[in-house]
Structure formats: C-alpha cells, structure tokens
C-alpha cells in the first residue's frame, strides 16, 4: 500500500470509530437511517484497510535488492561456482584478475594441467561473474583448492574484473578456515607497486584463515613472465599432490578446450567484429564501455613530425552523439584490426578458406565462457578482430604445435622449447623472444608444422584494446577526443618488418575527400591523473615524446580558464624530443600558451648536439631549487607521463634528490616526503613499459 492510500484509510477508520461512539452514547440524536449510514461507513473503512488489496492481482516482483523470499533464483545458481563444482565432481577452481588476457591465459593452462595430475578443475572463473561470498563454502568439498592468478594494474590497483572482489575481501571478514589456496601474481618491476595484488591476495587469504598450499609465485613482465610462470607451476603441482597425500600419476589427455562446429546460419547471424552483442555496430545503443564500444568517426588526422623517418599521428575522434564524457588525463581505448596481409597468410599456409563460418564451443558445459571469442563468425573475422596474431607464443603453444609437426628435427625443436630444461628455456628465449617470432612466423619457418586452423584460433590469445592518454581537454573539445600516437615499425633479427597493430591500423584512417568517414570502436577509461581542483595551484609536468599527450589537455584547460579572466597558477612543462625541427610535438600550440602567459616551457633536444645528449632529467636538476619551491613550499603538484622502464624511474630518483638538497632533508626524509606526495595524489604518474 502506498503512503497516500494508507493515509486515506487511516482517516476513514478514525472517522468511523468516532461516529460509532456517538451512536452508543446518545441514541435519540439519530434515526434508524442515520445508524445504517454510519454503520456502512465503518464497514467500508474496515474493508479499505484489511480486504481491498486481497481482491486485486499483485503485480509481478521486480528486480531489486528487497527483503523478499525467492523460491527460484536462477541467476544465483548461474553464478554459484560451489554448486557447479559439486554438480560436476570438481575440486579445483581457478580465478583470474586480468586486464590484458595474460592472467586468464595462465588460469586456463592450470585448469588443463590439473587433469594431467588426476584432478578436476572448473573452467577459469571470472570473479566478476561469480558469487565470491561463497568462497568459505569451498571447505565443504573434499581435497578442494582455489588458485588465484591476479594481475596488478595501474598504480597498484586490481584489474577491472577483480575490483569488486578485492573491495569485498579487503572490507569484509569471511571465515576461510578449511579453504586451501595458491596465488600467482602478475606485474612489472618497472612500476612502483610491483605485484601488489598478488601480495595482497596471498596475505589476506591467510589472515582470514585459509591455508597456503605453496608459496606465491611472482611473474615479471619486464623480465620473462613465461619463465616465471613455468618455474612456479613446476612447484605448484608437486606441492598440491603432497598436501592432499596423492600419488604422482601423469595422464596423457587432450588439451583441447573447444570443439569446432560449422554453423548453418544466415550471414546476418554472424559476428563481424562486435565485442559482445551481435550487430552492435549497426544498432549503436548507449551506455558505451569495454563490451559495447562506440563507433567514433575520424574527423581529423595529421602528421606531427616535420621531418625524419618516423611518424607521429594526431587523430581526432567525434563523440558528439555518444553521451561519452571525459576529463583531461583520462584514457581512450581503441579496438584495432589486424593487418589483412598477415590474416591472409594463415589461409595460405594452412590451405583454408578464411570465409568459412565457424563456432568454437566449450567442451565443459559447466563453464560460463561458452566461446573463446564471439561466435559464430568466419575464420577471417576471428583472425582480424578477435585474436592476437602478432605476439610471441608461450611454451604450451609450442607443445601443441609439435603434435602437428611431421619433420623430426622441427618437432624436436618445438618440444625442446616447450620443456622445462635449461637448454629448452635458452632456446625459447633466443628463437622465440629475442628473434621476435609470432605463431605465424613459426608456421613459416617450420614448414612441416600444419595444425588445424581451429586449433590455432584456440591457441591464440584475445586481441586487446589499446589505451592512449587523451591529448585534449573536454572543457575546450567536449565533443571530440584527441589521440597522439607514434607509428610503430621495426625490423626483427630475422629480417622481418614488424608493425604495431593499432598504430598501423590508425595510420590508414586518414579522412579522404568525398569518402565516408572512417570509424573507430572506442570507449573511455577514467583515470586518477587529474589537474588540481584549484586553478591557482602550481603544476609541474614532465612528458618527453608522446608523454606530452595528456599535458596538451592540461594546458588547453588552463588556457581556457585564463581567457575567462580567472587566475591560473604556475604551469610548467618539461618536454624532450630528438630534434626541434623534426619531432617537437605541438610546438605552435605551446608557443601560443607561452605568449598568453599561461605556460612556462623547458625543452631538451637529445640529438641536437653531436657530442652531448640532453634529456629532461638534466633540465630537472638545473631547475631543482624552483621545483622544490613548488612542491615543498607552495603545495604544488607534479605529473610524469611516458616510459616507465627508464625515464619515470630516473625522474622519481631526481625528485627525491632535489627534495633532499633544497629542502635540507635526510635521504630517508626526502623519500618519505615524495611518498607523501604520492599518497596525497600530488605526485602522479601515467607511464607504460
């Protein structure tokens, strides 16, 4: 009953009660008709309160978090990994937190290998799609084990699909007594918060009463992630067998996870590159995100380099009809398409018609992941839109390829690289990683290797979106997103020309007169890389090369504020490139900001002087006293964007030195001061390796 109806019923009942009392106390005042009328009113009031709603059909229950009993809850059952494990007799579940697909790939390999050791594992589980509150119930399953493959993302953050589980585990206190676990963390040592998620899950699970079966593994993407994983995996299974008192009994099983089906469907029922929803690109519907990207039209494309043999593109994408919003410092993600020449090469080498419709179907009917990529589609669509055909294959892929190689020497080479021997690891490091061979290159160099194309599609990992720091301000360009990207192209030790997947594709999107505009699937990812809320707060920006991209947006924003007549704090940019006449990005724009009194610019041109290379790090040391005044005395902010492996690390060390020298702080105090800046988000980094 709604509030208005309840109030009306209350008023009616009160009036009837008063009338009845008057009748009882003073009968002569009323006639028979009056009594009948009053009694009728009282009866109507009672009916209104107690019986009115019983005669009406109740509306169907709507979705929501209400305290109502549910006899049937299919969604909960769909997400219940405990129910699935019990129903299928499985005792291992592998969860992954993955941003680029590597952690998910490792999780799948562990699931497959569990069967070789006589154990049954549930298909790799996405925490976002599971009732993770059930984790404590895992102890109900005999000899059960949960394995976490958790990547660290950004500034020590969980991946998108693991963020809700991370927050739950951090804030809640579930009793995990009797739960057995193992953790493999993925990260990159060039980042400050290396492997923070792996460390968190390993420690937190133990704090909540779970039992660690084997020491946590650590994978370093700056080194050799594959070797790190193999080394840990070789300790995992013996430790698991020992923990549960099981005998080592390796079994030869099929490692296929999907079976090939040739669907008989109309062309309009085939996926053609959509990420999740069929025909999503024909019928665009907001909200737009990673699973539902927006097709943005390319409205501008220009070359930023004025000379030399390299290329840097400035691209503008129209988001006017998307309802997408962004702030300076956010990222735009682009879904690229593979080079058609490489795609066609697969068809040539394996003698397959790439326009054949296919569907790869999971052989595990308990899995929530029915297909490795949107199906049904053609081989051509899969290889063009969904699969990473240019990365170095991992060792388990080589083992699978060996089974389809007829030449003895070629087969032994693959098996050697797939083994855990020192010689095999060295060969893999040299032949695959150092010489930069993709799976396609291996098929070319080992001509007797002829796997089925559906197996190749299963072995290849998903093609990931590429993230770019947005190089515009929404305050100045609310209906467009700008990208600044260097075209990647290089020669490998084998003499092949390798090209960047996304930048090569974007390079072909230059608008042509009298031609329909090109479209690019995108979505926006929010960032913590933000200008201070107060425009008067001074800022220092350090961005060599394309690291200047977000700072173009920062400068645009402050220039707009200045033109509105509002005060703006010091805005200082340290920019570096090779030569002023060749690759000084956005020189004219920055000069305009300098002339209007918004920007102070310090430049380092590393190749201008033949006897000495000057980088932004040299400039920072020269202006150390000023930098300390901004950070230590004026509560300013400092931003770094660019290469994480060298530049960002060097800048971090120099800032500590500056704080120590000009702030008269001991080394430990200077480090603590910079750490405090980071905690307060006054020292922000947007870096990549």
From TrEMBL:
Q: What class of enzyme is it?
A: oxidoreductase
Which InterPro entries does the entry mention? CysJ-like_FAD-binding, FAD-bd_FR_type, Flavdoxin-like, Flavodoxin/NO_synth, Flavoprot_Pyr_Nucl_cyt_Rdtase, Flavoprotein-like_sf, FNR_nucleotide-bd, NADPH_Cyt_P450_Rdtase_alpha
Q: Which GO biological process categories is it annotated with?
A: response to hormone
Residues annotated as domain FAD-binding FR-type: 291-532
Which residues are involved in binding FMN?
Answer: 98-103, 151-154, 186-195, 221
Name the coenzymes or cofactors required. FAD; FMN
List residues binding NADP(+). 310, 546, 606-607, 613-617, 650
Q: Which UniProt keywords apply?
A: Endoplasmic reticulum, FAD, Flavoprotein, FMN, Membrane, NADP, Oxidoreductase, Transmembrane, Transmembrane helix
Which GO cellular component does the record give, naming just one?
A: endoplasmic reticulum membrane
Q: Where is the Flavodoxin-like domain?
A: 92-237
The residues that cross the membrane are 30-50
What are the subcellular locations of this protein?
Endoplasmic reticulum membrane
Reported function: This enzyme is required for electron transfer from NADP to cytochrome P450 in microsomes. It can also provide electron transfer to heme oxygenase and cytochrome B5.
This chain belongs to the protein called: NADPH--cytochrome P450 reductase
Annotated organism of origin: Daphnia dolichocephala
């Amino acid at each position: 009953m709604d509030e208005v109806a309840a109030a009306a019923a209350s008023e009616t009942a009160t009036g009837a009660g008063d009338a009845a009392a008057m009748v009882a106390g003073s009968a002569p005042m009323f006639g028979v008709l009056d009594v009948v009328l009053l009694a009728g009113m009282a009866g109507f009031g009672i009916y209104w309160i107690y019986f009115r709603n019983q005669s009406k059909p109740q509306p169907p229950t709507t979705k929501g978090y209400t305290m109502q009993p549910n006899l049937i809850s299919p969604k909960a059952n769909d997400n219940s990994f405990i129910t699935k494990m019990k129903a299928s007799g499985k005792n291992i579940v592998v969860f992954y937190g993955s941003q680029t697909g590597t952690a998910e790939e490792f999780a799948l390999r562990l699931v497959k290998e569990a069967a070789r050791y006589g154990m049954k594992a549930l298909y790799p589980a996405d925490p976002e799609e599971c009732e993770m509150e059930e984790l404590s119930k895992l102890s109900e399953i005999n000899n059960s084990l949960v394995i976490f493959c958790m990547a660290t993302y950004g500034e020590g953050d969980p991946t998108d699909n693991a963020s809700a589980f991370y927050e739950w585990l951090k804030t809640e206190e579930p009793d995990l007594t009797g739960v057995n676990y193992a953790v493999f963390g993925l990260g990159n040592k060039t980042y400050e918060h290396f492997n923070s998620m792996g460390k968190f899950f390993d420690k937190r699970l133990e704090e909540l009463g779970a039992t660690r079966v084997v020491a946590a593994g650590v994978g370093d993407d700056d080194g050799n992630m594959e070797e790190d994983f193999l080394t840990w995996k070789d300790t995992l299974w013996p430790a698991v067998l020992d923990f549960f008192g099981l005998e080592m009994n390796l079994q030869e099983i099929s490692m296929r996870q999907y079976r090939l089906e040739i669907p008989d469907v109309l062309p309009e029922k085939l996926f053609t590159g959509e990420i999740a929803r069929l025909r999503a690109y024909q019928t665009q519907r907001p909200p737009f995100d990673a699973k539902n990207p927006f097709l943005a039209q390319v409205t501008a494309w220009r070359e930023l380099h004025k000379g030399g043999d390299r290329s840097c593109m400035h691209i503008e994408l129209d988001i006017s009809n998307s309802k997408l919003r962004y702030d300076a410092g956010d990222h735009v993600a682009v879904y690229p398409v593979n080079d058609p020449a490489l795609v066609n090469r697969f068809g040539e080498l394996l003698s397959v018609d790439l326009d054949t419709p296919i569907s790869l179907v999971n052989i595990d009917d308990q899995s929530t992941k029915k297909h490795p990529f949107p199906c049904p589609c053609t081989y051509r669509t899969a290889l063009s839109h969904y699969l990473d055909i240019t990365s170095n294959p991992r060792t388990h892929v080589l083992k699978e390829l060996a089974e389809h190689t007829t030449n003895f020497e070629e087969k032994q080479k693959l098996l050697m690289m797939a083994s855990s021997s020192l010689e095999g690891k060295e060969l893999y490091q040299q032949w695959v990683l150092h010489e930069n061979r993709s799976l396609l290159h291996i098929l070319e160099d080992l001509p007797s290797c002829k796997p089925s194309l559906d197996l190749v599609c299963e072995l290849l990992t998903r093609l990931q979106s590429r993230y770019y720091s947005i190089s515009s301000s929404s305050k100045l360009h609310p209906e467009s997103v700008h990208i600044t990207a260097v075209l990647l192209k290089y020669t490998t030790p084998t003499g092949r020309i390798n090209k960047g997947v996304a930048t090569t594709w974007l390079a072909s999107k230059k608008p042509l007169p009298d031609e329909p505009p090109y479209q690019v699937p995108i979505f926006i990812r929010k960032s913590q890389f933000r200008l201070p809320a107060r425009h008067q707060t001074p800022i220092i920006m350090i961005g060599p090369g394309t690291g200047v991209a977000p700072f173009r947006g920062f400068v645009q924003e402050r220039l707009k504020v200045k033109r509105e007549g509002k005060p703006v704090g010091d805005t200082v940019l340290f920019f570096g490139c090779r030569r002023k006449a060749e690759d000084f990005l956005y020189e004219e724009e920055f000069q305009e900001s300098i002339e209007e009194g918004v920007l102070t610019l310090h430049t380092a041109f590393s190749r201008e002087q033949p006897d000495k290379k000057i980088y932004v790090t040299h400039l920072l040391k020269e202006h150390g006293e000023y930098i300390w005044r901004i950070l230590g005395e004026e509560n300013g902010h400092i931003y770094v964007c660019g290469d994480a492996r060298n530049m960002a690390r060097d800048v971090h060390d120099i800032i500590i030195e500056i704080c120590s020298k000009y702030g008269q702080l001991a080394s430990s105090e200077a480090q603590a001061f910079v750490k405090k800046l980071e905690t307060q988000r006054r020292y922000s980094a947007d870096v990549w390796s």
